[in-house]
Amino acid sequence: MAELAVNVGETSTKRVRLQGHVQGVGFRPFVYRLATRHGIVGHVQNQLGEVEVVAQGSAEALERFIDGLVADAPPLASPSVLAIDSVSKLDHDSFRIIDSLADTDAQIFVPPDYFMCDECKAELQNSSDRRYAYPFINCTQCGPRYTLIEALPYDRENTSMAGFPLCPECEAEYLDPADRRFHAEPVACAKCGPQLHFEEPGCETVTASNAALARAVEAIRDGSVVAVKGIGGYHLVCDALNDEAVATLRERKRRPDKPLAVMFPVAGTDGLEIARSYVSFTYEEAALASGPIRPIVLARRRASCGLAGNVAPGLDEIGVFLPYSPLHQLLLDALGGPVVATSGNISGEPVLTDNGEAARRLRPVADAFLQHNRPIVRPADDPVYRRIAGTMRPLRIGRGCAPRELELPYSQREPLLAVGGHMKGTVALSWDNRVVVSPHIGEMDSPRSLDVFEQVASDLQDLYGVRANRIVCDAHPGYTTHKWAQGLGLPVDTVWHHEAHASAVAAELDQPNNWLMFTWDGVGLGSDGTLWGGEAFLGRPGCWVRRASLRTFRLPGGDKAGREPWRSAAALHWECGLEWAALPDTDGIARAAWDSGLNCPVTSAAGRLFDAAAAIICEFPNASFEAQGPMMLESVCRSAADGMELPLREGDDEIFRTDWQPLLGMLADHSIERVRRAELFHASIARAIVAQAKALSAQHDIAQIGLCGGVFQNRVLADQTVALLEDAGFRVHLPLALPCNDAALSYGQAAEIAARESQQ
């Protein structure tokens, strides 16, 4: 920040322009109070993403005031000073907050949804407060933002709260610059704001908020599944201690095995006292679970965990989170115990947001609905975090942490829209050196997913006032996003799947010099027409060169192998001229297809190798959700093993390939305890990565190593790989802001295109 010369007694006038997270976070009333404290006259104004402050006072007071704009900013704000100019003297006799300006070209920030602050929580639980037990209490420091904003500037008339006229009491708070609800756009109370109602087939609708909440609590206690409309969409809620209720939810949702998140009542100093009866937290896990994002955090279940046994079958972790909205707080306080709170959607699709659509599409799943009449403009599912390689990292971004804004080390020539891949969809809007990544959308194989994808793509451009001139997509011609991009009528750039993975990490961490980037996942189309997924690239965004991989094999059934791990296990054996005794393909159709090469694409995918190991060790032929087998295999492990040294050979194409064949005998050796085989498998794969890194470092100058792709969500593999690489003298990085899975592809695509342009 530019320094101000101090000349006590001299009056001067300064204009300060600030950018960053300064909208929707109570920044203007903070500026008002700060100015009043320092005897400053002038005004503050929102200018479509920036805040302009014009301040007049003594030089000494001005210096303290301007310093305080950043140093004393509200918790949710993160301002930075863009410029300080001297301007003409004002004729103001006070400090004012003036109306937002909507026609400037500035740095827009769209705030995410924030969890309930302590002050609102205290009012919520104070029986003498007029907002006692009001499920939509909020202020400038908390409440929904992204999911109710319809347009910028962020003013009430541009939100889904426009249909709720303020009562006199709320209006007085809204207009009082000294009040913490000054221009808190979602502000409301029981007199003027949104209301709950409870719907149950065959029963009269309960329209009084308190009665509706009480009826929902009663239904959950009775073992019912209740669809609860929250901030960014619906949850399907049932008693997490009731095996029968959880089984009913699973059966109706057709989700037999996929783990379900559990929400716990707030208790104790950090809110996690009740949760600790069921799971154990590391310091990092507890800090994040009780922090401002309130994400789902994967934590290790206790041996004596009293949750329903079918909450996370076959796994040693539970997805745990705390109430983040006043509605959830009231619900959990009344219940006094944990509930399953899983996304209210059809599996794989975006979370549902509309009352009518939810009632129609969730009717086969939910016994009843706890609804409210505040429209949700766009969905935001719950974020998910896991501790990997000693750091909390996202597996899914959403409510509370998205839209996620990142910078690029280079600028875009023109605005572009990057549309990601096919799984774990996100959209990224990129212009100049800014990239905004949307919350999680879902799998792109349903009409609703495409509808939400198109809405989010349009919304990002509208909200930020940036119109994309071209589209970037995955090179795979079969992806829905690829087809959509090609049909839009704009110029289209394509990026290879694994180069997008690599560029996402490199751009986020922005380290100098070249990378060795391991991109390990399920499958993605490679430049040679085969399905890659166990690759290592040298270089940097814009100039990646593939230098290592895994031995390839033919994958019988193609995409079917992702849900039928036995196919990968069988293929590994057939590739080596062996037979697998546990083969479930009794009719021989898969083998005949493999022999003839029918629908048997060639792959180097590490994800399919993990599928095979799970099928053999865990005797797990079929999966009901993505990566179920590898997750079970990881859960079996108890400690690190030494691992096997796998052969590594450099081919004529200058690509090093690791041969997995020596693993087969060990994987199927029932004389070795199952736990030991799982540990040996993970350790051997980690050693194989280190061997590739050492071989390449002998030939090339490697500044740092990156690990990305969904396989590195496996904590056992990632932890061991990082430890071994660091022991070998390498600097190792995993992504921090975005998941290492396909959710980062949109950002990586934008980064890759920007890098190519910067090198032209």
Structure, explained:
With 760 residues, the protein is of the alpha/beta class. The protein has four domains: 11-97, Alpha-Beta Plaits; 196-372, DHBP synthase (Alpha-Beta Complex); 401-501 and 747-758, Nucleotidyltransferase, domain 5 (2-Layer Sandwich), CATH 3.30.420; 511-737, 2-Layer Sandwich (Nucleotidyltransferase, domain 5), CATH 3.30.420.40. 29% of the residues lie in helices and 21% in strands. The protein contains 20 helices and 31 strands. Strands 6, 7, 8, 9, 10, 11, 12, 13, 14, 15 and 16 form an eleven-stranded mixed sheet that branches. A seven-stranded mixed sheet has the order 28-29-25-24-23-30-31, sandwiched between helices. It has a six-stranded mixed sheet with strand order 17-20-19-18-21-22, sandwiched between helices. The longest helix has 24 residues, at 674-697. The protein starts with 10 loop residues before the first strand and ends with a helix. The model is unreliable at 1-8 (pLDDT under 50).
Mean pLDDT: 94
Can you tell me the number of structural domains? Answer: 4
Q: CATH H-level name of the largest domain... which superfamily?
A: ATPase, nucleotide binding domain
CATH arch. level architecture of the largest domain: 2-Layer Sandwich
Level of helix content? 25-40%
- Name the assembly state: single chain
What is the top-level CATH class of the largest domain?
Answer: Alpha Beta
Query: How much β-strand is present in the residues?
Result: 15-25%
- N- and C-termini, Cα separation: 34 Å
CATH topology of the largest domain: Nucleotidyltransferase, domain 5
Structure class:
alpha/beta
The outline comes out as globular
The main sheet comes to:
11 strands, mixed
Radius of gyration: 27 Å
Q: Regions with pLDDT < 50 over 5+ consecutive residues?
A: 1-8
Number of strands: 31
So how many helices?
A: 20
